[in-house]
Design brief:
eight-stranded antiparallel β-sheet; three-stranded antiparallel β-sheet; T-fold; alpha+beta
Length: 370
Amino acid sequence: MNTGKSNRREFLQGRSALKAVEDLLPRDVQPTSSGGEAEHHPGAPTDESYLIQVGRPAMACQFEVLLNAGQHAAATETALAALDLVDKLEDQMTVYRPQSEVSRINAAAAELPIPVESRLFELLQLAVALHGDTRGAFDITAGPLSKAWGFYRRSGRIPSVHEIETALLRVGSQYLELDPSRRTIQFKRKGMEINLGAIGKGYALDRCGELLSQAGVANFLIHGGQSSILAAGSRLSAHAEKPGWHVALRHPLRPDQELADVWLRDRALGTSGSGQQFFHFEGRRFGHVIDPRTGQSVEGVLSATVLAPTAALADALSTAFFVMGREQTLEFCGEHPTIAAILVCPGPRIGQLELHVCGLSDDEFRRKIE
């Protein structure tokens, strides 16, 4: 992964961000030259209201911060500092670097309690709580199953029954012992490991959002790989249909096709799907999302999108809802009014899709297919 820092002379100011993240923004954004910002009063929408885009590769995707040009003093410098923070969080959470804190936990926590940095410990507590709330559908210990299926190295395969049974013996967040008084973690079973891939990007966005908000930046959109998004305030444009930031929900198998529009305001969105990591075997399609309760590749859902108060929650619950399916997702949303979801499922005929939506109002959601 690229961990280089952004050069503060290299960002483009006053340029439309449409080309780089065209499925995140409304069509009214018009490009301008890269020579400077559009002239308008801070906070006032104009016919030509441009965006500042600051981005950097991290966590195997592109992280980007989008800002209303000319609205907040020093917003670009703050955005660059936020991306520096993403690099630090990746160094802490990745399982692909032996020196990371998570890698050190995985190497030793089966033998003794391991101290954990305070914010990371809070994230682990959230992950364990979500494991219980989703009845095991979300599980940060499911790495052995991903390895058994070959998805850990992005080369899918059908594991044997024995391989799945063996992996399941090392899976289960109920076997993580968190001690808040000492802020330590210990594994109750040998061979266990934690992997924050299904919640880490969202957590990084939340930390970036904190930094921007503390600096007085009230309107921004941050995304990690376009599947994890955190939005605050609104996109300033005279052509904006509704308050907030416009996001286009894409077809999980044909990303050039839009299924729905979503408007985010002081809210996060996360999407999980198997559109990029999958393989076919004997006429069946096997995606990379594995049910940690059974060890089987999940079928019946093509993508799960969640709106939640935080990006960590949206990320984690999008994975959980993908596993849980329609009925359990609707039940969960009914019990948690701050959570909304959009499930895209195969329709009754080949090539057809069904959208199942819960918890969204007309001001937040517009369907583009029937």
